[in-house]
Amino acid sequence: MSLPQPRRASAAARVPLDALFRDAGLPRWSAEQWAGEWAHPGGRIWWIPDRGAALAGLVVRCAADEAEILQLAVAPAARRQGAASLLLDAFRSAEPQIDRMFLEVRASNDPAQAFYRAVGFEEVGRRVGYYVDREDAIVMARPLTKPVGNPAG
Ligand SMILES: CC(C)(COP(=O)(O)OP(=O)(O)OC[C@H]1O[C@@H](n2cnc3c(N)ncnc32)[C@H](O)[C@@H]1OP(=O)(O)O)[C@@H](O)C(=O)NCCC(=O)NCCS
Fold first, then answer.
1. pTM of this prediction exceeds 0.90
2. Domain spans of the chain?
3. Ligand 1 pocket: which residues have CB below 6 Å?
4. Which tens digit of pLDDT belongs to each residue from 53-88?
5. CATH number for region 1-98
6. Residue ID of nearest Cα to ligand 1 atom 16
C-alpha cells in the first residue's frame, strides 16, 4: 500500500487525531490540552490524513535543539507499513535544527520499544512508577547530530 504524504496538522484535525490516539490506548487529552499544543511555540503536530480519518499522528514538543515525542500512533490496520517512520522522517526534514529526540514509553509496550529501537533510539533511563498506574517509563533517546568534519580528510 502506498501511504498518503504526512503533513502538518491544523487544529481542525483534533477530532480524528484524538480518536486515533484513543483507539491506540494512549492517554486522552482534553480539548484544552490539544489547544495548548497548537498554541505552544514548540508544538509540532503531524499526521497522515486518510479520507477524513487519521491514519497516523505525531505530537512533538521542540525546545532549542531537542524534541520530545509526546504522542505517536498508527491506526491498527496500517501498522508495519512504514507510516510511523514516514512521520518521523517528515518531522526531521522540517526541523533540521533538532539534534536529539527523546520520549517516554511504558515498560510493557514492547511493540513501541521495538519500533523506536528500529529507527535508532536507545534506552537511556527508567522512571520508576512514572505512570498513574505506577508502571515504569523507559526513557529512550536518539542523537541526530551528524559527525562534523572527516578525520580521514
Ligand atoms: C509503535 C507504532 C507507532 C509503530 O508504527 P508503524 O507504522 O507500525 O511502524 P513502522 O511500520 O514505521 O515500523 C518500522 C520498524 O519498526 C519495527 N516495528 C514496528 N512495529 C513493531 C512491532 N509491533 N514489533 C516489532 N517491531 C516493530 C520494525 O523493525 C519495523 O520495520 P519492519 O516492519 O520492516 O520490520 C505503532 O505500533 C502504534 O501505533 N502503536 C500503538 C501506540 C503506541 O504504543 N505508541 C507509542 C507510544 S510511546
1. yes
2. 1-98, 100-146
3. 24, 26, 72-74, 79-85, 103, 105, 109, 111-112, 114-115, 118
4. 999 999 999 999 999 999 999 999 999 999 999 999
5. 3.40.630.30
6. 115
